[in-house]
Design a protein that fits this description.
The protein has 282 residues and is an alpha+beta fold. It contains ten helices and 13 strands. It is 37% helix and 24% strand.
C-alpha cells in the first residue's frame, strides 16, 4: 500500500498527524510526505501512481498536486473538489444556506463601509474569506467598534501602500470582505471532529489560549449535534472533516466546515484515522 500525504510536516511528535503517520507505517504502508520543502519536483517525470493521496496542506504546491492527481483519476481522501469547496468561505456559506443548514446571515462586499447599515441592525463578525485557524477575525458589537475596525484597516492599507514603494495601493488595500451576523449564543463554541460516520465534539472558549482550553470539554452523546455534523459532511462530500458551531437559543448554528482538521483530544484519534485511511485505500 503506497500512500502520499500532501501536507506540511507535523509540528511536533505529540500531534495526531504524527500518530497517523506512525500508524500507517506500522501497518506496513509505504508513506511519503510531500511538502513545499520537498525540493525539486520534475513534473514531466512525476508519476501519480500512489494507491491513495491524503490532501491536508493549504500550501500552493499541495493544492496544485492534489488537483493534478484528481484530474488524472487518482484516489484522494478527501477528494480535491470537496476540500476546495470548504476552503472558500463564500461557497461554504452559500451551500449551507441553500441546503437549509442553520448558519448565520452572511454578507460579501468589496467595501467595508457598505456593512454600516448591517452593523446598525446587528453585531457582525468580519473575517478573511480564505482565512483559517481563527486568524484575522474581528467582532463588531456596535457601530463604535465598527468605526475602530475601519480605522485599523485604513492604517493597514496605508502601511501596504508604503511597502509598495508609493505606488497606487488599491490592489493591496482592497480585499473581498466576508462578514456574518454575530448570533447570540452560549459563552463557548462547539467543535466537532468527524472520521467517516464517527463524530467527537467538544465545547471550549474561543479563542483558546492554553492547552486545556484548546482541548475543551467533551460534549458526550448529542444526536442532534452529531446528525448536523454528518449532514455537513454529506453536503460537501467530506470524510475527514471538522465543523465549528455555536449554540443559539434556536439550536446549533454552523459557523465553518473544515477539511482534515487537527483532531486534538479525539479518543484514539491517530489510530482511528489511520485505520479509516487504510480501509478507504483498499
Amino acid at each position: 500500500m503506497r500512500i502520499c500525504f500532501l501536507m506540511e510536516p507535523p509540528p511536533s511528535k505529540t500531534s495526531v498527524t504524527y500518530d497517523v503517520l506512525n500508524g500507517l507505517q506500522a501497518s506496513g504502508a509505504d508513506v511519503e510526505v510531500v511538502t513545499e520543502r520537498s525540493g525539486l519536483v520534475d513534473l514531466q517525470n512525476y508519476k501519480f501512481d500512489y494507491d491513495l493521496y491524503l490532501f491536508k496542506s493549504h500550501s500552493p504546491l499541495a493544492e496544485s498536486l492534489a488537483a493534478a492527481a484528481h484530474y488524472r483519476g487518482a484516489k484522494l481522501l478527501n477528494e480535491y473538489p470537496a476540500t476546495m469547496k470548504v476552503r472558500d468561505k463564500v461557497l461554504t456559506a452559500t451551500m449551507l444556506l441553500q441546503a437549509g443548514v442553520p448558519t448565520p446571515r452572511t454578507f460579501i462586499t468589496d467595501s467595508i463601509e457598505t456593512l454600516r447599515p448591517v452593523v446598525r441592525e446587528t453585531p457582525i463578525v468580519v473575517k478573511p474569506w480564505r482565512g483559517r485557524r481563527g486568524q484575522g477575525i474581528e467582532v463588531c458589537m456596535d457601530e463604535s467598534q465598527f468605526d475602530d475596525l475601519i480605522e485599523r484597516r485604513a492604517g493597514a492599507s496605508a502601511d501596504a501602500d508604503d511597502d509598495a514603494g508609493g505606488e497606487d495601493g488599491t490592489a493591496l488595500g482592497e480585499r473581498l470582505i466576508f462578514a456574518q451576523e454575530f448570533e447570540e449564543h452560549e459563552p463557548f463554541d462547539y467543535k466537532a471532529y468527524a472520521v467517516g460516520d464517527y463524530v467527537h465534539a467538544i465545547k471550549r472558549v474561543f479563542p483558546g489560549t492554553t492547552k486545556e482550553e484548546k482541548l475543551g470539554t467533551p460534549v458526550g452523546d448529542d444526536p442532534e449535534l452529531a446528525d448536523l455534523v454528518r449532514r455537513c459532511g454529506e453536503i460537501f462530500g467530506l470524510r475527514l472533516y471538522g465543523v465549528d458551531l455555536v449554540k443559539t437559543p434556536k439550536g446549533f448554528s454552523v459557523i465553518e466546515v473544515n477539511c482534515f482538521p487537527g483532531y486534538k483530544g479525539v479518543p484514539q484519534g491517530g489510530e482511528r484515522i489511520s485505520q479509516f485511511i487504510l480501509e478507504n485505500a483498499e
